[in-house]
Specification:
about 10% strand; three-stranded mixed beta sheet; about 160 residues
Length: about 160
């Protein structure tokens, strides 16, 4: 087992390798990510929505079963531009505030098939090109983390997901 104090500090590559070798549990990694989100999200605003209970259930199931793929047990944030069947997809716009897609985008489906745990949706600029979202740079809250992937960038940079 790894001796890291906080598994959320692992890179995606490190976490995926440790999960595949059963050196860490998906549930422990997820819980460390959730703890980091709980501490930092009120300032950073990287997330639009969460599937916390579903993610925790999936992590426990993955820990008990065989390795599902190269992303086995890895918690991920999905940019709010990609459809997810179990979370709203707003495309960063209030006009899609009640949009609940019936299926996943192909990229999301492939990540799930590879064993990824969709923890939630990350902030995007409106339609990935217009009005910026509320996300702040985790290294300097007076700055933005950038454009359409601002929520995803901030979530990774602040160790909310590997």
């Amino acid at each position: 087992m790894t001796s890291l104090k906080n598994l959320a500090n692992l890179s995606a590559t490190q976490a995926a390798k440790a999960l595949a070798q059963r050196e860490i549990k998906a549930e422990d990694l997820l819980n460390d990510c959730l703890n980091q989100i709980g501490i930092r999200e009120p300032e950073v605003h990287a997330w639009v929505s969460f599937a916390k209970i579903h993610a925790q259930t999936q992590a426990r199931e993955l820990d008990r079963g065989p390795i599902q793929g190269i992303l086995h047990g890895l918690p991920i944030g999905v940019k709010d531009l990609f459809d997810t069947h179990d979370l709203p997809t707003n495309y960063g716009s209030p006009i899609y505030g009640n949009n609940h897609p019936i299926c996943d985008a192909i990229s999301v489906s492939l990540m799930r098939e590879a064993g990824a745990i969709v923890l939630g949706k990350t902030v995007t600029t409106e339609f990935a090109s217009f009005k910026p979202g509320p996300t702040r740079n985790p290294r300097n809250l007076d700055h933005t983390p950038g454009g359409s992937s601002s929520g995803s960038a901030a979530a990774v940079a602040d160790y909310m997901v590997p």
